[in-house]
Amino acid sequence: MSVTAGEPVREPWVFLLGRPPLEEYLSFVVQASPGQNVDLQVLAEQWRAAATVVDELTSSESGLANDRFATSLPDELAERATQYMTDPAVRASYAFLPARIAMVALDELVVFQKQINLRYAEELRALIGDSSLIDERLFDFCMAIGQPEPVIDRGQITQNTFVFQSISTDARFLGAALLDASQITGYMPPGRAHSAVVLYVGYGTNALNVISVENRLVLNNGSHRAYALMAAGFNAVPALVQDVAREEELGVAPPVQQNKKLYLEHPRPPMLKDYFNSSLHQVVQMPRRSRQIR
After folding, report:
1. How far is CA 145 from CA 15, 78, 95, 172, 241, in A?
2. Which of 18, 76, 217, 227 has the fewest C-beta atoms under 10 angstroms from its C-beta?
3. Residue 38, pLDDT score
């Protein structure tokens, strides 16, 4: 398909339907269609049809997400997991809760993210090996080890303003640190510097991260990775699992903390496998997004 000058590049996104709020789906499609007339009535009918399917699943699959637990990692991956968990970046990223590498079943995972970029998921799928093997290649994929990352463009636009941009939504501000000026090399300030404030921009560790809470397994990070694995035929895969023992610890997953009734108490919450149920999703062509950090 040719793209005319000025026409935004579009890519397919899948959106889970049938659960409140309806307005979230309408807003998503409106944003995907700038300058176009959107038939809100048709969109609402799509959502209501999916809501009917959700009601049916609530009855036929009641309790499907209950009593789900991570299982032991195969012995041949134990050393790999130990090495990964001692990585300083990993330790810093998952410092607030007990964390371990274990096996999870993808079809048992509760999800709170409603959107998947199918273009990105397909790129990830191309990196996956044989779906019959649980090996180091699968481990590295699940933990995002040694895999390509999109370029982050950067620039200074005013004396005190810097902009970073990437097509990856995982690009992010990683935090600030107060350092002794002697720790900074490669830059000479116009004066005798005593201290430096460093602002870090980059990518997260981006592991397939699952929280184990109230006997449910909730996908907390790595939705695209999990989608790509399920699309490739995997089910049991390695994940970085964090155990939540107290409600106050749910801050690691704000959507779950804000809507416990849906994700932890509903008899049939949204699950990863719902992305593959044609009655529960719509594919929407979205203008290609980019993440900007200023």
Report:
1. 28, 16, 19, 18, 17
2. 76
3. 86
Residues forming beta bridges with residue 271, ordered by sequence position: 110
Residue the block writes with tokens 């019959």: 132
Separation of CA 259 from chain center: 18
Strands (E), 204-264: 209-213, 216-221, 236-244
Sign of CA dihedral 92, 96, 97, 98: positive
Q: Give the separation between CA 16 and CA 217, rounded to whole angstroms.
A: 19
Work out the burial of residue 272: count CB atoms within 10 Å of its CB; fewer than 13 is exposed, 13-18 middle, 19 or more buried.
buried
Token pair listed for 183:
């720790």
**Residue closest to 138 by CA, chosen among 124, 117, 149, 148:** 124
Phi-psi category of residue 63: left, alpha or beta, with phi > 0 → left and psi -120 to 50 → alpha: left
Cα 18 to Cα 13: distance, rounded to the nearest angstrom:
16
The neighbour count for residue 207, using CB atoms within 10 Å, is 23
Could you read off the pLDDT of 133-173 as tens digits, one per residue?
A: 789 999 999 999 988 888 899 998 998 899 999 888 778 89
Say if residues 211 and 242 touch (Cβ distance below 8 Å): yes
Which residue stretches of the chain are H helix? 22-32, 40-60, 78-85, 88-93, 118-125, 136-142, 223-231, 254-258, 260
Residue 2 is predicted with a pLDDT of 43
Residue 99: strand pairing partners = 242
- Give me 28's structure tokens: 């998503």
